[in-house]
Amino acid sequence: MMKYHVLFLIILSCIVVSGFSRNLPITAFDEGYSHLFGDNNLMILNDGKSAHISLDKRTGAGFVSQDLYLHGYFSASIKLPADYTAGVVVAFYMSNGDMFEKNHDEIDFEFLGNIRGKDWRIQTNIYGNGSTNVGREERYGLWFDPSEDFHQYSILWTENLIIFYVDNVPIREIKRTKAMGGDFPSKPMSLIATIWDGSNWATNGGKYKVNYKYAPYTAKFSDFILHGCAIDPIELSSKCDDDAAESKTPSGITLDQRRKMDNFRKKQMQYSYCYDMTRYNVPPPECVIDSKEAERLRAFDPVRFGGSHHHHGKRHRRRSKSKLKEEDDVDVSFM
Ligand SMILES: *[C@@H]1O[C@H](CO)[C@@H](O)[C@H](O)[C@H]1NC(C)=O
């Protein structure tokens, strides 16, 4: 057990210091994952090196890690379906929603399809201990077409830090703050990948639905990295003492990476919950408001991101119990 922890600690430290995951072992599908739903809309190819999940009229599909993990580095290379993909949602995320109905944790990458000629967008979010009344969504464009080739999407999760990466560029960093309380994910979670019909919200507020004329929509996954403190679902916490691994985890992102992250966020971020005045009269406590960022987002949506006096009376908590809906989002015509 001890050996495992030391090894984990060393490897985790290396990841955090270098930001590169290329030395981490790739897991074959059958070693790390199992089928979740969607019968033969899940296909395992290349000796288990890749998995395809498809959405057609009958069903979406998904797969789930065999183990639960408490902290670690999790990654997959993903190629999204091309052309008309409005209403299609592909998700690569961690959750323990099946075990903790009322106080689950979640760390999400969600990919939102679009009409032909418009790019996919990514959304990130977290929930902790059932904090579903506080969505912490951010949404971004990408600097490439994610349906053209495989790109690596990764989640680093430690006791006090979550970092989302795209092709090893950190795009979002969430530090645990005291004020967040239980809202920071803290219980073991599974890795899950799904494709499903999000017609009622995914693209421009449900304006553009999934069109099954173009089905099947297939998302391709490969290069699975499941590198964390694995916990047997039956034995649960007994197998993993996480604080040994965390105490030496360095502060996270190198200077060079931080520069890249800032650059990415300046260019690509289209939505941030911290600036959404139609949702939060007072931003959640961890938000650090940057006036330049606020100004940039206001250009997308003057009402949502403040600055317009026109809708002040409407600043109530719309939909505070549900996930962010695209209809509350910037219109695609701004992009
Ligand atoms: C999680 O939520 C439950 C109530 O659902 C609460 O009793 C508990 O204290 C919370 N845990 C943390 C760490 O905030």
Outline of the structure:
The chain is an alpha+beta fold and 335 residues long. It has helices at residues 2-18, 29-32, 242-247, 255-268, 291-300, and strands spanning 33-37, 42-45, 50-55, 61-65, 68-79, 88-95, 106-112, 121-127, 138-140, 151-157, 161-166, 169-175, 190-197, 217-231, 269-272.
Structural commentary:
Catalyzes xyloglucan endohydrolysis (XEH) and/or endotransglycosylation (XET). Cleaves and religates xyloglucan polymers, an essential constituent of the primary cell wall, and thereby participates in cell wall construction of growing tissues. Residues 1-21 form the signal peptide. It is an enzyme of class 2 (transferase). InterPro entries: Beta-glucanase-like, Beta-glucanase/XTH, ConA-like_dom_sf, XET_C, XTH. This is Xyloglucan endotransglucosylase/hydrolase. The structure is a single chain. Mean pLDDT is 84; it is low at 6-21, 238-251, 309-322 and 326-335. Strand 7 and strand 8 (121-127) form a beta hairpin. The chain starts with a helix and ends in a 35-residue tail after the last helix. The protein has 335 residues and is an alpha+beta fold. It has a single domain (2-255), classed as Jelly Rolls, CATH 2.60.120. It has an 8-stranded antiparallel β-sheet with strand order 1-4-13-6-7-8-9-15. It has a 7-stranded antiparallel β-sheet with strand order 2-3-14-5-10-11-12. The radius of gyration is 19 Å and the shape is globular. The protein has 5 helices and 15 strands. It has helices spanning 2-18, 29-32, 242-247, 255-268, 291-300, and strands at residues 33-37, 42-45, 50-55, 61-65, 68-79, 88-95, 106-112, 121-127, 138-140, 151-157, 161-166, 169-175, 190-197, 217-231, 269-272. The chain binds 2-acetamido-2-deoxy-beta-D-glucopyranose. Residues 102-103, 129-130, 181-182 line the site of 2-acetamido-2-deoxy-beta-D-glucopyranose.
